[in-house]
Specification:
The complex is a heterodimer of chains A (222) and B (247). Chain A has 222 residues and is mainly α. Chain A contains 9 helices and no strands. Chain A has a single domain, classed as MetI-like (MetI-like fold), CATH 1.10.3720.10. Chain A is 82% helix and 0% strand. The relative contact order of chain B is 0.16. The longest helix of chain B is centred in the last third of the chain and has 16 residues. Helix content of chain B is 38%, strand content 26%. Chain B is globular and about 55 Å long. Chain B contains 9 helices and 10 strands. The chains are: A mainly alpha (222), B alpha/beta (247). Chains A and B meet through helix 6 and helix 7 of A and helix 2, helix 3 and helix 5 of B.
């Protein structure tokens, strides 16, 4: 007998799923924003040319790039409280984990962007008397930023998808709300299909927006 | 007439390769020095040591009689006074021609935008680029870019201008317009040190010609002495093949 599809379970639980999507976007935005700053600090340390700063940064970057995000999340949610004696909410634990993890990736994006600026640009800035800060702020970073934006956007989409892991520590994101809907309705096929569709619509929509944004940047030129 | 820039026993080593083996030079106010030599003779490296684009391995650079230290503040002050024009042009691609010339006036000298714009307009006018002042470098020819780069360097009002093969990366038909600008600077008594392969230009441009060989100054003097009656065998060899062109 053919499976009887019944998507009414999705429409009946639409409010909960929407709230879950809201939480997914909240955690994503918080993690990307914090990660962007963490990445800047890590990249700054790594590019500082001082071993005392560069090596710890390399350690953090490589550790978080080469361990599973789920393990990082579990460690911060279950293990860190044992060390510091404070238990973290699932949101805070996920926020910390995904901020550092995305920060590690962002740091490499920044470093790649800055490293891609030709030596002549540094020399031209120095030759008119610019110090390090002015040179970075006025000449190198504005050029590097244009090259960083596409990989930054790409990385940010990865962060949105990664936040689904937060459901495993009972953060009420889209996936968590889906699972709790399923436990009441026994309709995994419809609900998971709907969740996949929601992720797709959100990320594909954002990707189209990002592409037109990049086109505008390219037109504005130079 | 004082000495503006003095180099004393400059050495530069890259890894195990000793590129400069002790070069001394006094640049007098108003002098136009052309540095010649084969590729690998160290002439570009020497020029780049004068404003610390390369850190000399040993030796000293003096500006206005005072030794230049290697702190960032001292280097910045030196570079404002000793401008540079590069072989690879190096305009800032994210700024218009006007923006390129204004930039350091605002961010280094702390001028207002209005003051900077006035100076930049004057300098762009002198290199005949005022009509293109709102163009981005990507929309300018190599010769036009180099003229803007010269205006950018001059806007800082340097006491000395270093020119590192300023026409070597240009298409032949664009070389003339840049040389014309350099000649105009010479007519205004700008102190300049030029590294070049354009011997004919060097002959007319320079008040002193220096021939660098293997990291040392082998011969120097007036253009007539060095280019027409070189004393050293190496200089003669270097000039062979050029002599059929009239200077």
């Amino acid at each position: 007998m053919a499976y009887q599809w019944d998507f009414s379970v999705v429409s009946r639980n639409w409010d909960a799923l929407l709230a879950g999507l809201g939480n997914t976007l909240l955690l994503s935005t918080a993690s990307i924003a914090t990660g962007a700053v963490v990445g800047m600090v890590l990249a700054g340390m790594r590019l500082s040319g001082r071993r005392l700063l560069a090596w710890p940064a390399v350690g953090v970057i490589e550790f978080f790039r080469n361990t599973p995000a789920l393990v990082q999340l579990f460690w911060i949610f279950y293990a860190l409280p044992v060390l510091i004696g404070v238990s973290l909410s699932s949101f805070v634990a996920a926020w910390i984990a995904f901020s550092i993890q995305s920060g590690a990736f962002f740091a490499e994006v920044y470093r790649g962007g800055i490293g891609s600026i030709e030596r002549g640009q540094w020399e031209a800035g120095r030759a008119v008397g610019m110090g390090r800060v002015t040179l970075m702020h006025r000449i190198i970073f504005p050029q590097a930023l244009r090259r960083m934006i596409p990989p930054m956007i790409e990385r940010s989409f990865e962060v949105v998808k990664t936040t689904a892991l937060a459901a495993t520590v009972a953060y009420a994101d889209l996936l968590y709300e889906a699972m709790s809907t399923i436990s009441k309705s026994y309709r995994p096929l419809e609900v998971y299909s709907a969740v996949a569709a929601i992720y797709f619509v959100v990320l594909f929509g954002a990707s189209l927006a990002a592409q037109s944004f990049e086109r505008v940047l390219k037109r504005r030129g130079a | 007439m004082g000495v503006v820039v003095r180099a004393e026993k400059l050495h530069k080593t890259f890894g195990t390769l000793e590129v400069l083996k002790g070069v001394d030079l006094d640049v007098q106010e108003g002098e136009r020095i052309a540095i010649l030599g084969k590729s690998g003779s160290g002439k570009s490296t020497f020029l780049r040591c004068l404003n610390f684009m390369e850190m000399p391995s040993s030796g000293r650079v003096y500006f206005d009689g005072a030794p230049v230290g290697t702190s960032q503040a001292e280097l910045c002050r030196l570079r404002i006074n000793v401008g540079m024009v590069f072989q690879s042009l190096n305009l800032f691609p994210h700024m218009t021609a006007m923006g390129n010339v204004m930039e350091a006036l605002v961010s280094v000298k702390g001028m207002t935008k209005a003051q900077a714009r006035a100076i930049a307009s004057e300098q762009l006018g002198r290199v005949d680029m005022l009509s293109k002042s709102e163009s981005y470098p990507i929309n300018l020819s190599g010769g036009q870019q180099q003229r803007v780069a010269i205006a950018r360097a001059l806007a800082m009002e340097p006491r000395v201008l270093l020119l590192d093969e300023p026409t070597s990366s240009l298409d032949p038909e664009l070389v003339g317009e840049v040389l014309k600008v350099i000649n105009a600077l010479a007519a205004r008594k700008m102190t300049m040190v030029l590294v070049t392969h354009e011997l004919g230009f060097a002959y007319h441009f320079a008040s002193r010609v220096i021939f660098l060989h293997d990291g040392r100054i082998l011969e120097q003097g007036t253009p007539d002495q060095v280019l027409k009656n070189p004393a050293e065998k190496r200089t003669q060899e270097f000039l062979t093949g050029f002599n059929e062109f009239s200077f």
